[in-house]
Design a protein that fits this description.
The complex is a heterodimer of chains A (about 200) and B (about 240).
Chain A (H helix, E strand, L loop, with lengths): L22 E2 L20 E5 L5 E5 H6 L3 E8 L4 E12 H5 L8 E6 L4 E5 L9 E6 L2 E2 L9 E3 L12 E7 L6 H4 L18
Parallel strand pairs in A: 1-5, 2-11
Antiparallel strand pairs in A: 2-3, 4-5, 5-8, 6-7, 6-11, 8-9, 8-10
Chain B lengths: L3 E10 L4 E7 L11 E7 L5 E7 L11 E7 L7 H7 L5 E8 L13 E6 L3 H14 L4 E7 L8 H8 L4 E7 L15 H7 L8 E7 H13 L7 E6 L7
Parallel strand pairs in B: 7-8, 7-10, 8-9, 10-11
Antiparallel strand pairs in B: 1-2, 1-6, 2-5, 3-4, 3-6
The chains are: A mainly beta (about 200), B alpha/beta (about 240).
Chain lengths: ~200, ~240
C-alpha cells in the first residue's frame, strides 16, 4: 500500500463490481483525439484486408443486411469511467470474418479520420466483438463513433475504434494510435493495463 | 512507469474553484507540454481513487524538480475537492507520469500554433505557452473562452505572456465581459475567422475544454477549411451532447 493522503476519505459506494481504479458514471463521456468525422452511410465502407493482401468489403446496405445482435455489456474507459449495461445493436465480427481466409494473429483497426488501434485477432472472435451501429435503440451518434464503431467491451474502450472503416490482419503486432503514445498494447481493464509496461 | 511520492511545495488559488498545486518531484523524468499525470489518493483504510490531470507547467530542465498542476473543482467530484480544498503545503501526493503523446507541443515542431481553450481547458495550453516562451520561434495564439473576468485562470501569467511579441492572447467572455469589452458570447464562426490562424498559415491547433465546447470549436475549424489532421483535441466533462 502506498502513502495515506491525510484527510482523504473518498466517495465510495457504487456497489458495482468494477475493474480496479474505475468509477461508475451514468453519462456517456466523449473522448476523441481530433474533430468528429461526419461520415455519411452512403459513403461508408468496411474492409477486411488479410495478411496476403486479399480484401473483403461491405457497404452500408451489405452490413445492415447481415444478421444483427442486441448486445448489453459494461464498458470501461482508461480515463477511469465505467458505464454499466450499455445496449447496442451490431454485427458480430464472427459473422463478418466467417468467410475470410486468414491465419493471422493480429488485427489493426483503422478509422475514418486516421485513428488506429491494435488487437489480437482472437479478441475479436467468439462473440467478443461487433461492428455496432445503434446505441440505446438509436442510430449511433457521430460523437460516439457513428455511423459504426468497433465494440470490444472486454478491453479498455479506446480499443473500440470509433468511425471504423476496416481491419488489416497481420502475422505480427504493430501498435496503434494510443499504443504508440504510451498506452498499453493490450488494455485489459481487470488487470489495469493502462500504460505501456503496466 | 511507477508511482512516486511528490511533496506539495506551494499552492496558489487561481479562481474561486481552481487552484494550482506546485509539486516537488525529486525523480521527475521531464515532460512535454500538454502531457498529463495520474494522481492517486489513499484513505486510511486503504481505499483508493485516481484521476488524471494536465500538467500546467513547462519542463524547464533536469535541475528543476518542480511541476505544477491546476485543478478545477468538479461539483460532487471525488478527487478534485480534496486537491482544491484539503491538500496543503508539505503534504505528500502520489503521482505517476507523464502520460500522453498526442496532445503535446514539441519545440522542434514546425509552424505556428493556435491554442483554443474553454474554462480549465486552458491548463495544458498554458504548459504549451510556457514551453513556447522558452523554446519556440513560431507565432503562437491563444483564444480563451471564459464565463466572466473572475473565471480567468493564470490572469497575471497571461498578461505577462501577452505583453511579449511572440504571443497573441484573446479572451472571449460567455456570460459577463469586463468594462470596455462589450462582446459577450460563445466562440463562433466569426470569432474563428477574426482571431484564429487561417488554414493557409499551416498552424497546428490545440483545442481543450468541456466536450460540447471542443465539439463546437473543432467543427467550426473544419468548416473554416482547417485540415482535421492538424486539429488536436482534448475533451473533459461528464458527457457529450446527444447520446
Amino acid at each position: 500500500m502506498g502513502i495515506v493522503s491525510p484527510g482523504f476519505t473518498g466517495r465510495r459506494g457504487s456497489g458495482a463490481d468494477l475493474p480496479p481504479g474505475q468509477y461508475l458514471t451514468h453519462e456517456f463521456p466523449v473522448l476523441s483525439a481530433g474533430p468528429t468525422p461526419q461520415i455519411l452511410t452512403d459513403h461508408w465502407e468496411f474492409t477486411v484486408t488479410t495478411e496476403t493482401g486479399e480484401k473483403y468489403k461491405w457497404d452500408w446496405a451489405a452490413l445492415t443486411a447481415l444478421p444483427a445482435e442486441e448486445i448489453t455489456k459494461d464498458i470501461h474507459c482508461v480515463t477511469r469511467w465505467s458505464k454499466l449495461q450499455t445496449t447496442w445493436k451490431g454485427v458480430s465480427l464472427d459473422t463478418l470474418l466467417a468467410d475470410v481466409e486468414t491465419g493471422a494473429d493480429f488485427a489493426m483497426a483503422h478509422s475514418y479520420g486516421g485513428y488506429t488501434t491494435n488487437l489480437p485477432l482472437d479478441d475479436l472472435l467468439d462473440g467478443q466483438s461487433w461492428i455496432a451501429y445503434e446505441y440505446d435503440g438509436e442510430p449511433l451518434h457521430a460523437e460516439h463513433g457513428g455511423p459504426a464503431r468497433l465494440l470490444v467491451p472486454h478491453l479498455y474502450f479506446w480499443k473500440s475504434a470509433k468511425w471504423v472503416r476496416g481491419l488489416v490482419l497481420s502475422d505480427s503486432e504493430d501498435l496503434g494510435f494510443w499504443e504508440t503514445a504510451g498506452y498499453h498494447e493490450y488494455g485489459d481493464p481487470w488487470k489495469e493495463q493502462r500504460y505501456a509496461g503496466d | 512507469m511507477s508511482w512516486q511520492v511528490a511533496t506539495v511545495a506551494d499552492v496558489r488559488q487561481e479562481t474561486e474553484t481552481a487552484r494550482t498545486i506546485v509539486l516537488d518531484v525529486p525523480d521527475w523524468p521531464g515532460h512535454l507540454a500538454g502531457q498529463h499525470l495520474d494522481v492517486r489518493l489513499t484513505a486510511e483504510d486503504g481505499y483508493r481513487a485516481s484521476r488524471s490531470y494536465s500538467i500546467a507547467s513547462a519542463w524547464a530542465n533536469s535541475h528543476s524538480s518542480t511541476i505544477e498542476l491546476t485543478v478545477e473543482q468538479v461539483p460532487g467530484g471525488e478527487v478534485s475537492p480534496y486537491l482544491v480544498e484539503v491538500l496543503k503545503v508539505g503534504d505528500p501526493l502520489e503521482i505517476r507520469g507523464p502520460v500522453g503523446g498526442w496532445f503535446v507541443w514539441k519545440p522542434e515542431q514546425e509552424g505556428p500554433v493556435q491554442l483554443i481553450g474553454g474554462g480549465s481547458g486552458v491548463v495544458p495550453l498554458r504548459a504549451m505557452l510556457r514551453a513556447h516562451a522558452v523554446a519556440g520561434t513560431t507565432p503562437v495564439r491563444l483564444l480563451y473562452s471564459v464565463r466572466r473576468p473572475e473565471s480567468v485562470i493564470y490572469v497575471s501569467d497571461l498578461k505577462e505572456l501577452a505583453a511579449s511579441d511572440a504571443v497573441d492572447v484573446r479572451l472571449v467572455y460567455t456570460r459577463e465581459a469586463p468594462a470596455g469589452e462589450p462582446r459577450v458570447g460563445r466562440i463562433d464562426a466569426d470569432l474563428i475567422e477574426q482571431y484564429a490562424l487561417k488554414p493557409e498559415d499551416g498552424a497546428t491547433t490545440y483545442v481543450c475544454g468541456p466536450t460540447p465546447f471542443v465539439e463546437t470549436v473543432a467543427n467550426l475549424l473544419v468548416a473554416a477549411g482547417h485540415d482535421p489532421a492538424r486539429v488536436r483535441t482534448e475533451r473533459f466533462g461528464p458527457t457529450g451532447g446527444p447520446r
